[in-house]
Amino acid sequence: MPELRQNMATREWVIIATERARRPEEFAEVSRVRTHTRPQRVEKCPFCPGNEHMTPAATLAIEDGEGWGVRVFNNLYSALGDGPVSERVMEGLHRHMSGVGRHEVVVESPRHNTTTALMSVQEVARFLRAFQVRTEEASRDERVLLTICFKNHGAAAGASLEHPHGQILCLPVVPLQLRSRAHDAMTYFDEHGSCVFCDMWRQEIADGVRVVVEGKHSVSFVPFAAFSPFHIWIVPKRHAALFVQTRPDELEDIASVLRTTLAKLYWGLGDPDYNWMIRAAPNHHGTSRSYHWYLSVVPRVSKMAGFELGAGMFINSALPEQSARFLREVQVPDVVPST
Ligand SMILES: [Zn+2]
Ligand SMILES: [Zn+2]
Question: Is 284 a catalytic residue?
């Protein structure tokens, strides 16, 4: 019998299709050109060193001794524009406002043929720090209500360029999904006197069966009601509503957990395409005791179809406990094999 499960933090239901569940190894990409087999520098890549003139000027560059190690700049194809604080306008039933905000690109490494799974923990911590610095800067911008840090890895995840990079989008509105999650978290706090995310990571560590990697300050696990195969949450253990509130030692631990988790996906499933997103509270809810930031990883190993669009809920064809056990058992090589 298939099982319906509910995520207590998001309140979303999912169908866990036990009858037609696939074995974890069946999700592996077999014909993929893996990231580590690409050239280290690509002549025409706008994000490779030496091609800085092909992008806008850096808003942040972190040096690594020989040049930049991380480079941030405004997105050439920005989804939002510059301008004064925008007013909402109603015309009949149509509400609109001008699209002011920020949209930056974070190039995570000068090397074209790397990705988080192949980097050192220090390199991962360095680009996460760049996300933090720019998010902090955006939080002082009165036009910005919410900042989303995210990464698209691979074409199926929406990446148009191969070079490892993430993006920061700062919005002048709070999207419905985040508003309803913040509201649900507040309702849970009201009923239980605790944060649902704090309760969730503690229960996941106590249960153990869905944990992928546990660090000192953070833990990655496949949620009980994961909405897709190998969907993973990385939750910091100390309660904080905003990503920018995380301390350097905690960030280094998160970098280590993120790196190992993504390395297990890389070596276990053959470098699948994925997205990760940082889910943080709106800037003006920074002191919230009920909302807790976390990082969500969604490997693109299954497709969203009509049912998902129509119902607003998912069918997961992998068992969360099996996915987590598979990832726990993946051995990550110390040295990336040369090609
Ligand atoms: Zn490149
Ligand atoms: Zn919490």
Answer: no
- How many angstroms does the Cα of residue 161 sit away from the middle of ligand 1? 8
User: In degrees, to the nearest 5, what angle opens at C-alpha 25 toward C-alphas 308 and 233?
Assistant: 55
Separation of CA 295 and ligand 2 centre (Å): 13
Supply angle C-alpha 161, 163, 164, rounded to 5.
Answer: 115
Taking the CA of 111 as reference, the closest ligand is 1
| pLDDT category of residue 226 using cuts at 50, 70 and 90 | very high
Q: What are phi and psi of 165, to 5 degrees?
A: -155, 155
Counting ligands in written order, the one closest to the CA of 108 is 1
Q: How confident is the model at residue 250 (pLDDT cuts 50, 70, 90)?
A: very high
CA distance 190 to 182: 12
Q: The whole model's pTM is what? A: 0.96
How many other β-carbons are positioned within 10 Å of the β-carbon of residue 328?
15
* Residue in 165, 231, 285, 292 annotated catalytic: 165
Residue owning tokens 């992008």: 55
